[in-house]
Design brief:
By secondary structure, this protein is an alpha+beta fold. Helix content is 19%, strand content 21%. It is built from two helices and four strands, in the order αββββα. Strands 1-4 form a two-stranded antiparallel ribbon. Strand 2 and strand 3 form a beta hairpin. The protein is extended, with a radius of gyration of 19 Å.
Length: 101
């Protein structure tokens, strides 16, 4: 449960529910074969459309990270070069975020 935009530290791991929902789909879901340079993010995306007859369309999607240097994910060469404005925007709090305390 979210409260004021902050997820509690004891919140359940969302990837568990995502995998459970993925396995419950009534159709086969395909993903890329395991590769050294690819890592699938742990949470799948889902889209569901309902209409007069109930559920009309369901889809699942995956996101992957492509590693330039897969032997060391912390290698700085795996990161893109950021300009100063982008770097600063990543370091600052986004507007509207309320921190407890």
């Amino acid at each position: 449960m979210e409260y004021s935009g902050v997820v509690p530290t004891d919140a359940p791991d969302p990837s568990i529910e995502s995998e459970k929902r993925l396995r419950s789909l009534p159709f086969p879901v395909f993903e890329l074969r395991p590769q050294r340079s690819l890592t699938r993010t742990p949470i799948a995306g889902f889209t569901e459309t309902t209409g007069m007859a109930g559920r009309e369309e369901v889809s699942a999607s995956f996101s992957y990270t492509l590693w330039r240097y897969p032997d060391d994910h912390a290698d700085p060469r795996n990161e893109i070069e950021l300009d100063e404005a982008t770097r600063r925007s990543l370091m600052e709090e986004p507007p509207g975020v309320v921190r407890p305390g």
